[in-house]
Specification:
Blueprint lengths: L9 H5 L10 E10 L11 E10 L2 H8 L4 E3 L2 E5 L9 E6 L7 H14 L5 E4 L3 E4 L2 H4 L4 H19 L15 E2 L2 H7 L6 E5 L1 H17 L4 H6 L2 H12 L8 E6 L2 E6 L36 E7 L4 H14 L9 H9 L20 E9 L2 E10 L3 E9 L8 H16 L8 E7 L15 E4 L6 E3 H8 L8 H12 L3 H6 L5 H14 L25 E2 L19 E4 L2 E4 H4 L5 H18 L1 H4 L3 E4 L1
Parallel strand pairs: 1-22, 15-16, 20-22
Antiparallel strand pairs: 1-2, 1-19, 2-4, 3-4, 5-16, 5-17, 6-7, 8-9, 9-11, 10-11, 12-13, 13-14, 14-15, 17-18, 20-21
Helix pairs in contact: 3-12, 5-9, 7-9, 14-16
Catalytic activity: an N-terminal L-alpha-aminoacyl-[protein] + L-arginyl-tRNA(Arg) = an N-terminal L-arginyl-L-aminoacyl-[protein] + tRNA(Arg) + H(+)
GO cellular component, one term: cytoplasm
Protein name: Arginyl-tRNA--protein transferase
């Protein structure tokens, strides 16, 4: 009896949106074990099912990730959630519902300040930047010590001249470095502001204490006679008679004594190398105000996934410095396999099919500051979502929190492109593992949802949190089912009005409570206790000879319509089995049942199961 060949699956794929122009061809690797990168278990406690894809339509991959699959290059994997040590739940966010937290808003403002030149950063190693630490801010420079001595000499002059009471306890002057964030508070004009001292405020406080101890109280006139503003003017006059400090001129503003750089491009009229300040009535105020901080330019460019030497160099720096990888693990071949190679068939935007301007497929989003590549986000754009694959960034720009910033940019991208492609609504953040501290940031993008590992329904994260606190594997859909049951139960007053009449009713109530707590028979099975900013599941997998065992009583009809690729032709299994001997069928059929179970009935009949 002759077998029946099957034509290309273009038509089947195109009916699902974004899937026209090709077919999905995959090979099944079955169950595999590997060491866990999350709990660092020494045993091979991470258990997953693996597929490799020669080609994959975007609609088929959308269906797969909605069943808990992810990809690393051309390798697809899905964890056996009830058996693996660290069950990873697929997490997503509806972009239109996203509400940024205060911390996320601060990240955006920080980057804007950096671009405007207002962030406290210091250059290091050429063009690299870093945030000034508190230790650096408090570091005493020789010039600061010299300026402190000049102020102390000016204070002594004022005491000797009788301007300050001799019995005042005046502390030693302290000069501090001024960083960008504090400049506006300390001066009316912020050009080249280097150092400042608040000694005038300390002297004013000391004067007030002396007056109060002498008279018991002090009136406003006495208090204003030595206000911080007046004291700073007095010290400025006294300092003009002290030794010169080349390259520095002094101004006072609102009681602060400020030391500025006397750069060559400024028109400064010296008064013994000290120009009078903003509170002064003197004629030394001739500083030009036309200087403005140069703004940096941030560019974001979305391009099709391809090898870029500049991106690879950035990836190497990121992996070596942030994740402490060994140099042998960041070679070009491994980088290509992980982040460049993709089985997704690119779909061009067309007038007949609503799609974003870039189309559907795998892309790299580049972030550049003044032309310098500082981050790359690897993403898949699918019919219903943008799926984040990985992000790597320049370690010198860690202070910008580029992981959080890029996530918000990707969420905004979905929002903007939903107008052109109404089906494009979600942002997928990859996997979420509740016990892994490095993944908690994903739940901060609210309101997020987790995928139920059994029924593949989406459940609000906030509803699942309390149960995940208790156990790693939870059938999340039980939560929503129990909530529906609770909402349909009689009101509490009605329940009290009708006493129970049988033991059977007691048992039913107990079962309802168990469901509300997320308990089920499936969770009583033994559980073994299986990174990066996103999911790098590039561990070596140890394949097991046996596939997941299905019910021996399952009907052959379950696998009859699986699409098989063999020697360049395609067959439904019900036709191919007629060509096979009993031994071959006995070997293949358990694998097909396992495959059908993990990808679902519809996909097993649409994707090509390649036999090699």
């Amino acid at each position: 009896m002759s077998s029946k060949k099957v034509k290309s699956t273009d038509d089947a794929s195109s009916s699902h949106g974004g899937g026209s122009g090709g077919e999905s061809v995959i090979a099944d690797h079955g169950r595999g074990r590997s060491t866990c990168g999350y709990c660092k278990s020494p045993s091979r406690s991470s258990i997953s099912h693996g597929l490799s894809a020669e080609t994959l339509t975007v609609s088929d991959y959308q269906a797969l990730i909605d069943r808990g699959w992810r990809r690393s290059g051309c390798y697809l994997y899905k964890h056996e959630m009830d058996k693996t040590c660290c069950p990873p739940y697929t997490i997503r966010l509806k972009a239109s519902d996203f509400v940024p937290s205060k911390e996320q808003q601060r990240v955006s403002r920080r980057l804007e300040r950096f671009l405007d030149g207002k962030l406290d950063v210091q250059p290091s190693e050429g063009t690299e930047h870093k945030v000034a630490t508190s230790e650096e801010k408090n570091k005493v420079e020789p010039l600061m010590d010299e300026l402190s001595k000049i102020i102390d000499q000016a204070v002594q002059r004022c005491i000797q001249s009788g301007e300050f009471p001799a019995k005042m306890q005046i502390p030693k002057a302290s000069v501090k470095k001024v960083f960008c964030a504090g400049k506006k508070k300390l001066a009316e004009r912020t050009e080249q502001l280097l150092y400042t001292s608040n000694i005038a405020f300390l002297i004013a406080a000391a004067y007030k204490r002396v007056q109060t101890s002498d008279r018991g109280e002090i009136n406003n006139a006495e208090e204003n006679r030595l206000s911080p503003e007046i004291i700073s003017e007095m010290l400025l006059t006294a300092m003009s008679k002290v030794e010169e400090t080349p390259g520095i001129y002094i101004k006072v503003c609102k009681g602060h004594i400020n030391f500025l750089s006397a750069s060559k491009d400024r028109d400064v009229v010296p008064h013994d190398n000290i120009s009078r300040g903003a509170n002064s009535t003197g004629e030394g105020e001739t500083v030009q105000e036309n200087h403005r901080t140069r703004k940096l330019k941030l560019e974001m460019r979305l391009k099709r996934s391809s090898f870029d030497p500049e991106e690879h160099e950035l990836y190497k720096r990121y992996q070596l410095r942030v994740h402490n990888d060994k140099p042998g693990h960041v070679v070009e071949s491994s980088y290509r396999r992980f982040l460049v190679d993709s089985p997704l068939i690119y779909v061009k935007p067309s007038g007949d099919e609503k799609a974003p301007p870039c189309g559907f497929g795998s892309f790299h989003q580049q972030y550049r500051v003044d032309g310098r590549l500082i981050a790359v986000g690897v993403v898949d754009i699918l019919p219903r979502c943008l799926s984040s694959v990985y992000l790597f960034w320049d370690p010198d720009y860690a202070f910008l929190s580029l992981g959080k910033y890029s996530a918000m940019q990707e969420i905004n991208w979905v929002r903007e492109n939903q107008v052109l492609c109404p089906t494009l609504q979600y942002y997928y953040l990859g996997y979420y593992i509740h016990s892994c501290s490095k993944m908690t940031y994903k739940a901060a993008y609210r309101p997020s949802e987790l995928l139920c590992p059994l029924r593949f329904q989406w459940v609000p994260f906030e509803a699942a949190r309390s149960l995940l606190d208790k156990k790693p594997y939870v059938i999340l859909s039980d939560i929503t089912d129990s909530q529906k049951q609770c909402s349909s139960l009689p009101h509490a007053s009605e329940t009290l009005a009708e006493p129970r009449t049988s033991e059977h009713e007691d048992m039913e109530q107990g079962e309802t409570n168990d469901h509300f707590m997320g308990c089920s028979d499936d969770e009583d099975e033994d559980e073994d206790e299986d990174e990066d900013e996103d999911d790098d599941d590039d561990e070596e997998m140890e394949s097991e000879d046996s596939h997941n065992e299905s019910d021996p009583g399952s009907e052959d009809s379950d696998i009859n319509n699986i699409l098989i690729g063999l020697y360049g032709s395609q067959y439904r299994y019900k036709d191919l089995r007629q060509m096979m001997n009993p031994v071959g069928r006995k070997q293949l059929e358990p694998m097909l049942r396992s495959y059908r179970k993990v990808v679902d009935d519809e996909l097993s009949e649409r994707m090509v199961y390649e036999i090699r």
